[in-house]
Specification:
Rna Polymerase Sigma Factor, Chain: A
């Protein structure tokens, strides 16, 4: 690791933003590296498809870079960035609905990736039957996630996958704290009802 790389990785997100605004593109690369996985997984929860998730994650990065001059220094970067990401996902859903209505048919998403960390199998010697069962569970979970209203899906994602607190989610989504609690509660109830014994 080069000295500059080490220095860049020791900066807070907010320090990196200051450097990016001064045209430090290595700082930009470091910031995107930190959020690449989060944005991809959020995008996947809204698309159910690897290729679309890649495209949507790229769109999130572009929006963040485009809107970065409007970021208020002194504030925390993560809630702001997640808000931009959430808006990009909601726009994707809206655009997809418009496109589907034009085509007069529903798109069936291709799911090849797990959605629950808890059910991922680490054992490399797992037998074929277990592997098939795992994939069926993953597909069912993702299928039911895609059926949830966007507001529930966002709240669940930020709570379970990003480990944000209710307060942080309320800031990201710009909604009251009780609304976040309601979204998470109702989202979990719908998943539990739909998935039955799988959860």
């Amino acid at each position: 690791m080069r000295k500059k790389d080490y220095i860049q990785s020791s900066f807070s997100d907010e320090e990196l933003v200051k450097r990016i605004l001064k045209r430090d593109f290595e700082a930009l690369g470091e910031l995107f590296k930190r959020y690449e996985r989060s944005f991809y997984y959020l995008a996947y929860r809204f698309t159910g498809d690897h290729y679309s998730a890649d495209d949507l994650a790229s769109e999130i990065f572009l929006r963040i870079y485009r809107y970065l001059p409007s970021f208020r220094l002194g504030k925390q970067f993560k809630p702001w960035a997640m808000r931009v990401a959430a808006n990009a996902c909601l726009d994707f859903v809206k655009d997809s609905k418009i496109q589907r209505s034009k085509e007069a048919k529903m798109t069936r998403f291709d799911n090849e990736m797990g959605v629950e960390v808890e059910i991922e199998i680490e054992d490399k010697h797992v037998n074929l039957q277990n592997s098939l069962e795992k994939r069926e569970i993953e597909e069912k979970v993702q299928e039911e996630l895609l059926k949830l209203p966007e507001r529930y899906r966002l709240a669940l994602y930020f709570y379970f996958w990003e480990d944000l607190s209710y307060d942080e989610i309320a800031k990201v989504l710009a909604v009251p704290l009780n609304t976040v609690r309601t979204h998470i509660k109702r989202g979990k109830e719908r998943l539990e009802k739909a998935l039955g014994d799988l959860v």
